[in-house]
Amino acid sequence: MIDSTTPLRATDPAETRAERRRLVESVGAHRRLLAARRPFELADRRRLDREAGERARAGARHGKALQRVHEKRARSERSLTAELNGLDGKRAGQERRALAVLRREAVERSLRGTRLTAGEVNGVGAGLIRDLAAQGIRTAADFTRVSWGKAPGGRGGDVLYIHRTQGRKVHINGIGEHRGRPLMEWRRAAVARAEARAPHELPPDDRHRIEEIVEKERARLRAELAELPKASETAGAEAERLHAERLAALTAAERDAAEEAARRRAGFDETAERLLALRAELAAHVDRYGDLGFRDRRARSRALRPLPAPPEARGTAAPPVIPAPRTPETGVREGGEAAEPAPVPTASGVRASLGWLVPVAFFAVTALFGAGVTAATPLWFVVAGRLVALVMTAELLRLWIPRRDWRTADAMPRGTGFLAAGVFLGLVAASMFMDPLYASDSAPWALAVVSALLVGAGAVRRTGGGPGAAA
After folding, report:
1. Spatial distance between the Cα atoms of 139 and 108, rounded to a whole number of angstroms
2. Nearest Cα to 51, choosing from 284, 257, 228, 222?
3. Short-list 105, 179, 106, 196, CA closest to 137
4. Is residue 277 within 8 Å of residue 285, measured between CB atoms?
5. How far apart are CA 448 and CA 457, in angstroms?
6. Residue 305: predicted pLDDT
7. Phi/psi at 125 (nearest 5 deg)?
8. Which residues fall within 8 angstroms of residue 273, CB to CB, at 6 or more apart?
9. pTM
């Protein structure tokens, strides 16, 4: 860097022009480098918004994981408690089923022991007994019922079939309706005797065995119920560990990104200070050697154009594009003012609300159809009211549309809501003054007073405050 206090040695016109050209080109080069600061700040603001969103999503996932752990524990507790409460009924059911099996086995043993002999069934003699035995029917347990059906081979009329317990139905020649009915009555009597002799209660050994099974099940359910808090704590600790790992990864990434942003911002500040020094040197050169012609003026005007300011962070003053130069040793700016680090822009995360479309729609409808237009309304009032509504519609859209863009997102200016409400009430009050039905009432005057107060409050807030939550 060339010190602006160093006397310039160029005396030859060619050398003077070359020195001037070098200074102008250096200023232009530094200016082009600083032109990248605004896109960088916008990208950094989007990065901060993105990091905030990632942290919010991580917190939401963590909350859902803990909620799932809690719900799973509650479901398991309800299920285990219901099973514990139902063990007594389960034991009674097992005892009923075991008794039913025991009685069925006793009845089957009794029926197998009841043999069919000659003389027990009316009309069934030794010959039919042999024929039945040849078909596997020897006891009351070997058949279940009788039925009528077509004769074997399809010849003849209906015949009586005996249904075996295991196997197909058979027809015994000589056993028809008169012998089939006594045969079934004999079996029913055998079944009734077997059921009467069957046990009506479980033996103590079987009851004790079922009790042991139920108690083992009860102990298992109680153990699982006692383990639920520990399992829930383990799952919650795992969710906390995963959340902590995610936050640590986000913090590390944010720290690296913030360090890179600070490094680039420091580079921009250094470039801005070098640009200030070059401009001062260029101004000293111009003061010493004067104007060098049209091309020199044109080159200097291009190089000295003002730079666009970087986006302003909410709640902070905009950092200067070109800060005042400071000495490297003390960090004090020229004039004895202490140098302050440029504030780091942070993402506002605020966009103009979609609710602003409501007043926009009101004013747009008023611009199209007028405010309280009747047959007695003068033409000049109709035109003036629609023009005012159209101007308010355009103004609200001008303020609202850029503040919805993610690159220039911001809240509506303070006082905008008061101004919009005041103008709308003013149009309504003016239309009531023009209407003979309301002109003599006090309602138009009340609306006019409220409208004037709202417009005044909005104007004060607009002139006295910057962007913020629009009221």
Report:
1. 11
2. 257
3. 179
4. no
5. 14
6. 67
7. -100, -170
8. 322, 323, 325, 326
9. 0.46
